[in-house]
């Protein structure tokens, strides 16, 4: 497909389809409607002359100043030998050729991106081409919006490209929401806490039990039950035999503590970990739940930096996708404008499809209507 110049009765553009061009009307064209920012902002260097830039706004002003339509001006300028052309006509032809060349380049990039690129590359390349196609038809239509829209409404390829971009954006939004939900804290996910302030001192909670005293208590317990020779299996959970927390037997190298509040015996190291933990009952005896001391102050534990950065990146990408869709809406408004229902339709259909997919896949996140400005 190649970009060619508009003729007397039609303009063949880079898509290969023909759109009407107002060449038979010799009256002065109506003043152009205000150009939107996306139309006048780009200045692209030409392919064969990188040092020379092409200004859409300057070219549009040139077209608006002429008494003939774009097609008539082009035909008249091409009919004059190069050495006899006026400077304004020479500049007009140069700008026309630059526009066709840029449009051809944008089409090649869009086609290559469609074949090999990932979604953002595809969408950006297609949007860039659609934008330039809309600009070109607007210029070829002598800055007449109604004729521009009449040409683009019947351009099947133009509409299909728009629908493809909307489809890509919707798919990318769904994939991003799915990944984002995996990173966000779930409603049923328990909050993680961290303690604030100094740690508890276990020596203020209980006293060390000397080894002879401990072994005497263990012997008395066995004698009371009449099962002195049995292994410890029957007494596994007794606080005098082993630590209630780790279930290890006590030893003379690691003497336990007897708690002041309830007289239960607990391993020193385990008690320290327990008292300085983040559990709600960490200030109670792990054996009988008697209160031992004041609860250490605690606060929700900050999210891991890596996880927070990933969430921010995903949210930022959703914002970028929203802006990308806004560009598509601008192109739709320029291409088919006048009927805002046509603009809203694309947003509504994408929103319904994305949210239906989220529901189908059990994803709790949804796209709000404000996101697509329906």
Average pLDDT metric: 80
What gyration radius follows from the Cα positions, in whole Å? 38 Å
When the domains are counted, the total is 3
Number of strands: 9
List the strand order in the largest sheet: 6-7-8
Helix/strand structural class:
mainly alpha
Strand content is 5-15%
Number of separate helices: 12
Overall 3D shape: rod-shaped
Order of helices and strands: EEHEEHHHHHHEEHEEHEHHH
Roughly what percent helix?
Answer: 40-55%
Low-pLDDT residue spans = 1-38, 40-46
Largest sheet: 3 strands, antiparallel
Give the termini separation.
35 Å
InterPro entries: Znf_RING, Znf_RING/FYVE/PHD
Biased composition (Polar residues): 1-27
GO biological process, one term: protein ubiquitination
GO molecular function: ubiquitin protein ligase activity; zinc ion binding
What's this entry about, in short?
Residues 1-52 are annotated as: Disordered. By secondary structure, the chain is mainly alpha-helical. Helix content is 52%, strand content 6%.
Structural notes for this entry:
- This protein has helices at 37-40, 56-65, 70-79, 87-116, 119-140, 145-153, 156-183, 211-225, 268-275, 305-336, 340-360, 369-372; strands spanning 11-12, 18-19, 43-45, 53-55, 193-195, 206-208, 257-259, 265-266, 298-300.
- With 374 residues, it is mainly alpha-helical.
- The protein has 3 domains: 1-154, no CATH class; 156-185 and 304-374; 194-300, 2-Layer Sandwich (Herpes Virus-1), CATH 3.30.40.
- It has a 3-stranded antiparallel beta sheet with strand order 6-7-8.
- A hairpin with a 5-residue loop joins strand 1 (11-12) and strand 2 (18-19).
- The longest helix has 32 residues, at 305-336.
- 29% of the residues are buried.
């Amino acid at each position: 497909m190649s970009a060619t110049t508009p003729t007397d009765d039609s303009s063949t553009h880079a898509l290969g389809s023909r759109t009407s061009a107002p060449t038979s009307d010799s009256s002065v064209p109506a003043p152009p409607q205000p150009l939107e920012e996306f139309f006048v902002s780009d200045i692209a260097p030409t392919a064969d002359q990188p040092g020379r830039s092409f200004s859409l706004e300057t070219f549009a002003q040139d077209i608006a100043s002429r008494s003939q339509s774009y097609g008539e001006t082009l035909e008249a300028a091409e009919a004059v030998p190069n050495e006899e052309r006026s400077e304004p006509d020479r500049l007009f032809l140069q700008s026309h050729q630059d526009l066709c060349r840029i449009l051809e380049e944008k089409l090649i990039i869009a086609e290559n991106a469609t074949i090999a690129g990932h979604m953002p590359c595809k969408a950006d390349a297609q949007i860039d081409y659609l934008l330039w196609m809309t600009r070109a038809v607007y210029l070829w239509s002598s800055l007449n919006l109604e004729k521009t829209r009449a040409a683009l409404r019947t351009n099947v390829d133009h509409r299909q490209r728009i629908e493809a971009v909307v489809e890509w954006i919707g798919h990318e939004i769904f994939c991003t929401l799915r990944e984002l939900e995996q990173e966000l804290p779930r409603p049923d996910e328990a909050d993680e806490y961290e303690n604030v302030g100094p740690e508890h001192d276990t020596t203020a909670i209980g006293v060390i039990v000397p080894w002879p005293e401990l072994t005497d208590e263990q012997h008395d317990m066995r004698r009371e039950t009449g099962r002195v020779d049995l292994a410890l299996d029957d007494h596994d959970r007794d606080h005098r035999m082993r630590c209630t927390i780790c279930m290890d037997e006590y030893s003379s190298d690691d003497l336990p503590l007897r708690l002041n509040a309830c007289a239960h015996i607990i391993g020193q190291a385990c008690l320290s970990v327990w008292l300085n933990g983040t559990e709600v009952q960490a200030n109670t005896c792990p054996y009988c739940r008697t209160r031992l001391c004041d609860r250490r102050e605690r606060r929700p534990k900050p999210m891991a930096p890596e996880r927070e950065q990933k969430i921010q990146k995903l949210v930022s990408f959703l914002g970028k996708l929203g802006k990308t869709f806004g560009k598509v809406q601008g192109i739709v408004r320029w291409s088919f404008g006048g009927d805002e229902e046509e603009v809203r339709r694309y947003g509504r259909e994408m929103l319904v499809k994305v949210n239906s997919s989220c529901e189908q896949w059990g994803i709790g996140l949804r796209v709000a209507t404000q996101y697509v400005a329906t």
